[in-house]
């Protein structure tokens, strides 16, 4: 009796061992299915069905093999975190430094949290409509600063020309001047890398338990969405002009002004062909 009981057990282990080898050979589900059939002993008793389970190691190895060798898990996450801005409005200087961090990041999404409460809601709508254009305008502004440090072109920056004047490779809060218990003046120093900075002054007021920055020239259009739709295509145009400035294709401020005039008219022709007007009609 003992001998008869051992035969099926031995066969079971033989089949499991064979299935394991098949999995090692090619690791495919089809091969495992081939060894998962029904078998019988010499005396006619049936063994099975035996299903060789999916091994966790195969799944782990498969996932590792599928990942490109050039990619490191978490790669780029540190850069992403570095660009995140934490707004602090607990003091006037903290609010001013928060504005610096927002402008240096290139993403204006947190901007409504640092401006005065009567500007915040409309600022949120403007940022939603113009954030992409502001990023391209920032790229152009930095290219102009690097190539023509003394230029005075800021009118192309959306939302606020004051913000455009603060877009710079180097931006810092240089001084805080107290006006009253609830108002201070923030003095910003903005300029190209290694160049002579220019000063920009902004009022910072206390509102309840927070300090907020007042933008003196913030005047959004009555219909923000309609105005933004008229500016479609300008982000690509600004990016193209920035590239041409960096490459030396546009070698003077006057040449850049001519291109910006064409952008405003909707007739700018990017280097890739077509016109800005045509791009807007497609969108």
Which descriptors apply to this entry?
two-stranded antiparallel sheet, 14% strand, Nuclear Transport Factor 2, Chain: A, disordered C terminus, 11 helices, alpha+beta, 2 domains, 283 residues, four-stranded antiparallel sheet, disordered N terminus
Q: Care to describe what's here?
A:
Helices cover 50% and strands 14% of the residues. By secondary structure, it is α+β, with helices and mostly antiparallel strands. The chain has two domains: 2-65, no CATH class; 87-282, Nuclear Transport Factor 2, Chain: A, CATH 3.10.450.50. The protein has a four-stranded antiparallel beta sheet. A two-stranded antiparallel ribbon has the order 1-2. Helix 6 packs parallel to helix 9 and helix 9 runs antiparallel to helix 10. It is globular. 23% of the residues are buried.
Secondary structure class reads alpha+beta
Report the β-strand fraction as a percent range.
5-15%
- What's the count of strands? 6
Number of helices: 11
Low-confidence stretches: 1-41, 45-82, 278-283
